[in-house]
Amino acid sequence: MDNQLLATLLFPHLKHKRSHYEEKYPKREIDEKAMVTRFAPSPTGFIHMGSLYASFVSYVFAHQSQGIFYLRIEDTDQKREVENGIEQIISDLKKEDILFDEGPTIGGKYGPYIQSERKEIYEAFVYDLILKGYAYPAFESKKELEQLRKLQEKEKKRIGYYGKYAKGRNLSLEEIQKHLDNKDSYVIRLKANGNFDDKFEFKDCIKGKITLPSNDMDIVLLKQDGLPTYHFAHVVDDYLMGTTHVVRGDEWLSSVPVHLQLFRLLGIKPPKYAHIAPLTKKVEEHVRKLSKRYDKECSMAFYQEEGIPTNAIKIYLATLLNTSFEDYYLSNKQANISDFHFTWKKMSVGGSLFDLTKLLFLSKTYFSRLTAEALYQEILPFYRENDPSFYKTLTEHPDDTIRILNVERTGKKPRKDFATYQDIKKHTWYMYDAYYFNDTDMPRAPMKEEYDISLVTHYFKEVYDEHDTKDVWYEKLKDFIEQNQYAKTVKEYLQNPGKYKGHVGDFCEMIRVFLFCSLETPDIYELLQILTKEKILGRLDKMQDLC
After folding, report:
1. pLDDT digits (tens, 9 = 90+) for 337-387
2. Which of 52, 147, 171, 454 is deepest in the core (most CB within 10 A)?
3. Are the C-beta atoms of residues 33 and 205 closer than 8 Å to each other?
4. What is the distance in angstroms between the CA of the first residue and the CA of the last residue of the chain?
5. Given 276, 295, 327, which residue is the final one in a domain?
6. Same domain? 402 vs 464
7. How many CA atoms lie within 13 A of 477 on its CB side?
8. Do 168 and 268 sit in the same domain of this protein?
9. CA distances (Å), 526 to each of 119, 150, 448, 469, in order?
10. Could you give the strand order of the β-sheet that contains 187-190, starting from the edge strand earlier in sequence?
11. Run of H or E including 393
């Protein structure tokens, strides 16, 4: 067959040949050790934790090698595309602080970065394959392909379009011309030259040496709508965009022989592949794949609604990427992801266990290392978007809020009761009069019959001095309660419980409930210092009325 004639017949209006695009997208001028990676999602659904992890891995390896991380939207399956899918992907990446160096919204020398806008490029490369005798049109209908599948099942053969079952291979130029004249729908297929019985070996960055059957399937390159399949598009794009490392899920492992065959037939050097095993979850005694359907922690919306900080998520993902990072982070208060050297060899071959409890623990550690000022600035965007009322309170009282957030933060063991942005309100709301005096949905500790509001009020009116140091304050408090039949220590109370109404802990509990509506608070002394004596007495008057 005259391949030149066939190529011209199929693409009579081709604007540019392959060489044009190779000149347009020259080899990147970067250091030979620098990695060029990409995140290439399809807008057929929203980003989940698994895809975020893959993008994070690509992001980390590119940036630690002083390379390039770019975003490419693979939207060739337009029947499954969801409304605003591209916008949502970009928004989610921005929220999680996975910032790309090139992409649809910021451009770059190797765009367009949306595959549906690169149709002419794929046509040029298919044209090239046809010229070389490595591609051809196939006109089978869905019905004919279904009949082929049934025949293969009957003959107990592998299902697919290959060998003697690839009827399109044998069409003459005249037959092809007739189909075109009839305006019959067709696809462009690869003329595979592999043998399934031959073994194919390649080295994966994570999994090491892998052996697979050589590809003999005449896969579709261009669909009936003229758009490429994933197999073909990613080969062309990764070549022209200078991708050095492809990070993707290991569900694509079986496709590697196809992809490397395409690279070889096109005469271009393939990138290195790093296939990530899926994130898993332990449910009772079983371990299964993290599920978009069943697991809330798979959805990025969960983290945004709960207010789990982006930096904490990235820190946790770094521990999945390399388990040594956790020890590094916990033992180094100045730990930074960008300062840690990640390697492919340290990544899990079988998949990492996703543990929400550990993520929240690391989030608490992250919060504990922030200054009160930094924490204040970090929580504002969350409350501005999710709780305007509390946001108003925070912004009306910035100095007091910073003091509140600073309670038990400056010592050797800073408080770790904040795991999410929501926890900030949960553990501080009672410090604001607007919430203390007014109805609120926040839980209030129950009043007990043995609580003595008069005694607590008497203490604050006659004994408490807000200018006292902590040590002086505590000694005066213990002297006061002793005079009122409370033991100074729990030990004294337990030795002679009949002698006392309670102990120092019981008295402090009353203070907590009356002034802070909670049985659990950070350091009482620090909280009292923030309230001032005047506000304390005002709150006790309110509680007197309620009691």
Report:
1. 999 999 999 999 988 999 999 999 999 999 999 999 999 999 999 999 999
2. 52
3. no
4. 98
5. 276
6. no
7. 24
8. yes
9. 65, 77, 25, 10
10. 135-138, 187-190, 220-222
11. helix 388-396
**Helix 372-386 vs helix 398-405: angle between axes, to the nearest 10 degrees?**
120
**Residue 210 domain-assigned (yes or no):** yes
Which amino acid is located at 126 in the chain?
A: V
* Percent of the chain that is helix, strand, coil (3-state, to 5): 50, 10, 35
pLDDT (tens digit per residue) in 232-259: 999 999 999 999 999 999 999 999 999 9
**362 and 376, same structural domain?**
no
Cα gap 312→198, rounded to integer Å: 47
Domain coverage including residue 164: 3-13+121-276
Closest CA to 279 of 50, 14, 21: 50
Check whether residue 352 and residue 408 sit in a common domain. no
Structure tokens at 247: 């990070």
**Domain-embedded: residue 409:** yes
Q: What angle do CA 300, 304, 305 make, to 5 degrees?
A: 115
Which whole-number Å values give the CA distances from 476 to 473, 479, 488, in the listed order? 5, 5, 11
Task: Count CB-CB contacts under 10 A for residue 41.
Answer: 23
pTM recorded for the entire structure: 0.90
Strand partners, 204: 208
| Token pair recorded at residue 320 | 């999945």
